[in-house]
Specification:
Layout (H helix, E strand, L loop, with lengths): L19 H16 L6 H17 L3 H14 L4 H13 L3 H12 L8 H13 L3 H13 L5 H16 L3 E5 L3 E6 L4 H22 L7 E7 L2 H5 L8 E3 L3 E5 L7 H20 L5 H11 L9 H5 L19 H22 L1 H12 L4 H9 L3 H12 L2
Parallel strand pairs: 2-3, 3-5
Antiparallel strand pairs: 1-2, 4-5
Length: 389
């Protein structure tokens, strides 16, 4: 299941970066002035260092930015803006431990209103790494800075709910995955999950033609408390929201059905990356089911749909929004059917080429025409005739 989180990410707008040569020259001039007969006052020196440090950060030079901003914060610990810039630089470099230390310090300061977007980005980056305490702290600083974007404030509330639902977790890291599991999840199940995911990763990377760009975060919840907090229906045992989330019943043995859920949610990660986040809901859910091994024979579609009518592609944009289990079953059956029909008519490679075309910027209509030689309406009509519905 793909959970779509709406709302823009508040990446700070950046002016045109100053050249590294100019920044280096300014820093050298400042060092000479500091050693000269009339050095700048500590306040002026800190202000100039802060400006140079932000210049390095804006230019993407994280090493020099961190070095200069750390010196600035040491000289002027009350400078909230330099502290925010340092936290951002460390987070972008994925130096999460040091970023967390300075984020703790920032919480003791009154944030500058100009840094709201900085803390929104810091929160998003920490959440993506499943450092939820830090993400909540950063988004709270966004709020305290005067930030009012409802999507960011919703992420703050969601992070707080997650922290109450998962008070203790342990982790397992590899080059492909970073797995976080509630303490109630048995260690043996965690090992089985890592093995199953690694096997599926290799298979799906070959199907999609590329590995994921970095380790995929996986969160294993013991029970459904977290899923209930975010209103995920009882019939859903896995969600992909940028992280793979699965709900396990710790009182029951790890079952083959759980491996299918892991495979399904991992496919969402590949589809999102390869399509550049542009794959529609029916393609996401249909291909994720197909990758997990689910198949529906042509003779079974009428039973799977029940009394529900087939939908158009536009009506199936967000399948997860329909919480009625019977309607959801029909939606998912149709999504899988469309993928199975495409594979039947055009071959397995056509579907994966369709996903890649979306990732290169093609509109869905163009990608369907290029890879399947049909329109969206023709796809739905062809599947209905093929499946007898």
């Amino acid at each position: 299941m793909l959970l779509i989180l709406c709302g823009s990410s508040q990446t700070p707008s950046r002016p045109s970066p100053e050249s590294p040569e100019n920044l280096d020259a300014r820093l050298a001039d400042l060092r000479r002035a500091e050693q000269g007969p009339r050095p700048p006052s500590p306040r002026v020196l800190a202000a100039k260092l802060a400006d140079i440090g932000r210049g390095y950060l804006n230019a993407g030079l994280l090493g020099p930015a961190i070095e200069v901003l750390e010196e600035t914060v040491a000289r002027a610990p009350e400078d909230a803006r330099s502290l925010a810039s340092l936290v951002l630089a460390l987070t972008r470099r994925e130096d999460y431990e040091f970023a967390g230390s300075y984020l703790d310090l920032a919480q003791e300061r009154e944030p500058d209103p100009r840094d709201a977007a900085v803390y929104a980005e810091v929160g998003d980056r920490l959440a993506a790494a499943h450092r939820m305490e830090g993400a909540a702290a950063a988004w709270d600083l966004y709020r305290r800075s005067g930030g009012s974007d409802p999507s960011v404030l919703a992420r703050l509330e969601r992070a707080r709910r997650e922290l109450t639902a998962t008070p203790g977790q342990r982790s397992l890291a590899s080059d492909k995955f970073t797995i976080f599991a509630d303490e109630a999840v048995p260690a043996a199940d965690l090992a089985r999950i890592e093995t199953a995911l690694s096997r599926e990763y290799d298979r799906q990377a070959e199907l999609f033609g590329a590995p994921l760009r970095g380790p995929q975060v996986v969160v294993v919840h013991a029970g459904r408390r977290y899923f209930s907090l975010i209103s995920i229906p009882d019939w859903v045992s896995g969600v992909f929201d940028g992280k793979i989330r699965v709900s396990l019943d710790g009182a029951k043995p790890f079952a083959p059905q759980a491996e299918s859920v892991l495979s399904h949610e991992l496919a969402h990660a590949f589809i999102r990356q390869v399509s550049g986040g542009r794959a529609p809901g029916w393609l996401h859910e249909g291909l994720a089911q197909w990758c997990s091994g689910r198949r529906i024979s042509r003779a079974e579609f009428r039973r799977e749909l029940g009394t529900a009518r087939p939908r158009s592609l536009s009506e199936m944009e967000n399948l997860a929004a329909d919480l009625d289990p019977q309607r959801a079953r029909a939606n998912y059956a149709e999504a899988l059917g469309l993928v199975e029909y495409l594979i039947e008519r055009r071959g397995e490679g056509s579907v994966f080429c369709l996903v890649r075309d979306l990732g290169t910027g093609d509109a869905l209509a163009d990608a369907l025409r290029n890879e399947a030689q049909m329109t969206g309406a023709e796809l739905v009509a062809g599947w209905k005739a093929w499946a007898g519905v």
